[in-house]
Design a protein that fits this description.
170 residues; two-stranded parallel ribbon
Length: 170
């Protein structure tokens, strides 16, 4: 999940994960953390992985290394203020990667290979139908965004369905 934390929808997603004894990985935008620091803490308490999605969701791949590192350092400070630790994972906004991001960010970079387009459709049924139509999802990284009610609704359907299919969420 990208772009949170959101004070309502992040918790709705976490409720679904918790009730299904599952976890997920969240890549959070640091400027959003003051709106929902408790969601970040709850993610970690539930065993979810929390990574950085930058400070302000700017295109890191278009920045020089110094500017990129300033952005990521600012983001890390917000994570530390909320949780006591900086994330080790990074998902660059827009999936924009260059050598500075890949090799010089100081973070392990994680992208995705299935964009659910939840950000475009904002319709839970469309997202659920798309994911369920994909066939083998083993090892796939599904991109969703924790800032939409429709994504929280899709999560309510998808998490138990994925578990029933034999997948382990990480």
């Amino acid at each position: 999940y990208d772009d949170g934390p959101h004070p309502v929808y992040s918790h709705a997603i976490l409720d679904t994960l918790e009730s299904n004894h599952s976890v997920a990985t969240f890549f959070e935008v640091a400027i959003n953390i003051p709106r929902a620091p408790d969601a970040l803490v709850r993610m970690l308490e539930l065993g979810c992985e929390v990574g950085s999605h930058s400070n302000a969701h700017l295109d890191l791949g278009k920045m020089d290394q110094k500017t990129m590192l300033q952005d990521l350092d600012t983001a890390d400070e917000a994570f530390i203020a909320a949780t006591g630790k900086a994330p080790t994972l990074l998902r660059p906004p827009y999936g924009s990667i260059n050598d500075a991001v890949r090799l010089g960010s100081g973070h392990s970079v994680v992208t995705w290979d299935v964009d659910t387009l939840d950000w475009e459709h904002r319709d839970a049924a469309t997202v659920v139908s798309y994911i369920q139509s994909l066939g083998d999802l083993d090892g796939r990284i599904l991109l969703m965004h924790s800032i939409y009610e429709s994504t929280a609704e899709a999560t309510k359907v998808l998490v138990p369905w994925l578990i029933e299919q034999g997948y382990q969420l990480v």
